[in-house]
Amino acid sequence: MAAPADNPYAAPKVSVSDAAPRLGIGTRAARALAFVGNAFLLLLPLFFLVSNRRFDTGFFVMAGYCVIVAAASAMALAFRDRFSFWAGLSVDALGLVLVAVLLVYLLANGDSDWVALFFLAVPTTLSLLAILLVRRARGPSDDTFAMRR
Question: I want to staple 114 with a disulfide (CB 3.0 to 4.6 A). Which of 5, 34, 58, 106 is the partner?
């Protein structure tokens, strides 16, 4: 590539495309549904606070869970790097394990509040599936670091 004729010291013009491949309609729908689920997770502590009207340990544990899962999932769905993918995947998987352990604990104790755990499990499962679908649609080499090699 040669420099422009009017300025021999100018840097050559280079065009680099970092556009992601187009996602299919199913993948885009799953991704949008996961973002809606993440917004629901972020609003869930507010609903809990309005209905409970007190700050207790359960509120802070649930709020922490919701914020961490929603942030990691949104990061994995929005960015294309490996760190975001693995962070979102691992946080969602660990979140589902936590919900499963709590579900078994509540069922073993005969507690009738186990149904409320599905408010946490369903958005987490949707975002986990959307993360896997988006990563599969983009391909394994869709990483900015891997593209520079």
Answer: 106
Tokens for 138, please give them. 């983009």
**Helical H runs in the chain?**
25-52, 57-78, 82-108, 118-138, 144-148
pLDDT for 74-112, tens place per residue?
999 888 888 889 999 999 999 999 999 999 999 999 988
- Token pair for residue 147? 């593209």
Burial class (CB in 10 A: 0-12, 13-18, 19+), 16: exposed
Task: Give the model confidence (pLDDT) of 20-74 as tens digits.
Answer: 567 788 888 888 999 999 999 999 999 988 887 788 888 898 899 999 999 999 9
User: For residue 86, what are its two tokens?
Assistant: 């693995």
CB 28 within 8 A of CB 137: no
